[in-house]
């Protein structure tokens, strides 16, 4: 391209190439592609990190809340503090998200999951009595009480050297002294879960296998050694509805929430491309 030339009227700009020729120029195409990439990148970044804005709506809501709690109008200093506190929390929240704390912190993750669960399912309607009774009748296996056992024990902190002789004396009705046990000697109608929590699962199994009315042992537990006599064994039994109504209501509400979540999972799987 020739350099600009001087005329009697001053400098004359060089002639521009025709539009058709300009469109065919590789440098022009490269320039257009670069501009398009820059615009797309800017749009993506703007969507990924929206600006922090203390909007009039946010300020109005904070002022209304403050005035309702304080019982007075918000002063300029109050408004400045509200803005400062809001911006601080917003920036710290965004930094937490940027550090993926919502993915790695168990408590934060659970709170967010519970919040979204509520937003999806909403507050379920209060079930009426007919719905509760129907749910109870359809799920009777869930409302059976655990087996219960009545027994007494003689406790020794250490395994006695004469365990066989002590067992024989107990079974002929002789008195045998034991060490102090924090729950005493008698255990009337204790459920399996309670016995398990005190003595451990092996003790529960031994108690179930023991013949009623006879002393057995010593049975070892994490607390020591136990000579045990089972007096009564009650099998698992259905808990009457009126005794467990509150639990039935809670179970029904949770079941309704679970159904709403299940209905939304298909859409969420597609949205987040879940791999199987």
Helix content: 55-70%
- Ends apart, CA distance between termini: 62 Å
SSE string, helices as H and strands as E: EEHHHHHHHEHEHHEEH
- SS summary, helix count: 11
E-strand count: 6
Q: What percentage of amino acids are in beta strands?
A: 5-15%
Instruction: Indicate the mean pLDDT.
Output: 80
Return Rg in Å.
38 Å
What is the CATH topology descriptor of the domain at 145-234? Chitinase A, domain 3
Helix/strand class: alpha+beta
Unreliable residue stretches: 1-11
- Describe the strand arrangement of the main beta sheet, using strand numbers: 4-3-6-5
Under CATH at level 1, the class of the domain at 145-234 stands as Alpha Beta
CATH architecture descriptor name of the domain at 145-234: Roll
Which shape, going by the Cα principal axes?
elongated
Pfam families: Rotamase_2 (PF13145)
EC number: 5.2.1.8
Catalytic activity: [protein]-peptidylproline (omega=180) = [protein]-peptidylproline (omega=0)
Family: Belongs to the PpiC/parvulin rotamase family.
From the structure above, extract its key features.
PrsA_foldase, isomerase, PPIase_dom_sf, disordered N terminus, single chain, four-stranded antiparallel sheet, Chitinase A, domain 3, 276 residues, alpha+beta, two-stranded antiparallel ribbon
